[in-house]
Amino acid sequence: MIELKTKLRRWGNSFGIVVPISAVEKERASEGDEITIIIKKDNPKLKKLFGALKNWKIDTQKLKDEIRREEK
Questions:
Q1: Of 14, 17, 41, 61, whose CA is between 20 and 30 Å from 54?
Q2: Could you tell me if residue 9 is left (phi over 0), alpha (psi between -120 and 50 degrees) or otherwise beta?
Q3: How far lies 62's CA from each of 55, 69, 71, in Å?
Q4: C-alpha angle 71/46/15, rounded to 5°?
């Protein structure tokens, strides 16, 4: 199984994707082979990104003071 990122493109009245030849060769696929495509939109949510820092054990005031000292 190969996971790759590609862009959805308009193809007439439909949409299509382009599968890179490197992925096709790696899977030893050829024209006419049946493949499975799982569609998942990449849309990182800010809440999810910032939620990763909720257990951060660094005192923000100390961090700001340290940065100010380094800037001088």
A1: 41
A2: beta
A3: 17, 11, 14
A4: 125
Question: How many structural domains comprise the chain?
Answer: 1
Domain-embedded: residue 4: no
Rounded alpha-carbon distances, angstroms, from residue 31 to 11, 21, 53, 55: 19, 12, 46, 49
Residue of 31, 16, 22, 30 lying closest to 4 (CA atoms): 22
Q: How far apart are CA 37 and CA 54, in angstroms?
A: 35
| Closest to 2 (Cα-Cα) out of 23, 31, 25 | 23
Q: Which residues of the chain have pLDDT under 50?
A: none
